[in-house]
Amino acid sequence: MTTLIYTHKACMSHDTGHNHPERAERLRAVLDGLTMPSMSALDHREAPLATLSQLTRVHSRAYIDQVLSTVPFSGHAYLDPDTVISPRSGEAARRAAGAVCGAVDAVMHGDATRVFCAIRPPGHHADPDHAMGFCIFNNVAVGAAHALVQYGIQRVAIVDFDVHHGNGTQNIFSREPRILLTGSHQMPLYPGSGAAFEVGLGNIVNMPLTPNSGRKEFEAQWRTHGLTRLASFEPQLIFISAGFDGHRDDPLAQLDLVEADYAWLTNEVVEIAEQSAAGRVVSTLEGGYQLDALAASCVTHVKALM
User: What is the pTM of this model?
Assistant: First the structure.
């Protein structure tokens, strides 16, 4: 069983400016961790550029054109108050989305069973027609739509454990019965959505966690709601929006999770994937802003995928 890493140097060149929390050092810390001797079994691949047809499955053509035309020749521009772009950001965003599509191709063609996309910018806040919360294109949604269209998969699950609710992913798929979206997140917290009563067609499972929740609350929500529903859905492919900003050391939120909690949930997801999805899991990096905690959590997560 091969585990792949998809990444690209362009993702390091997405410059968000001085003191922005979503900075290139995040990806450097992750990649340093994933190239340690203990991770030598990983196969690294270059992320392709997402094609226009892949992007337009979830984003409007007008929005895509707006993003690419707003990329500055020098300095910075803003897609929203939090989402900063620079001259290489257009390529970085297309590589990030393309990584997830490439990962889908890899697991569907049998090149790998599990894939981790070490990419930035993140994606799960991006809506069909606007950027939000550091996110330009919704990477996991682009990948999930690629799986539906290119491979005719009928049951695709997305697991999102970022500390912030994946509002963009929910907005894109809330009326798509072939997609099950299960997610835990701190509430109240940005972006203000993700209440338990937000269920879409019945295909959305939101699990809000109160500030200062830790392992006990996290496991209880996932055991009672998320994992039970995930297993009963019998997904043929599982995606993970892997945000590690619920770590107790992260500065942008107030959960009390540690690396072992991410390992536990990843192992549970892999076990379900083995039962119904031939083991296929595609994970993509979302949040996580304390560099040591982010790197350690990513390594733990990928080891569990392996």
Answer: 0.98
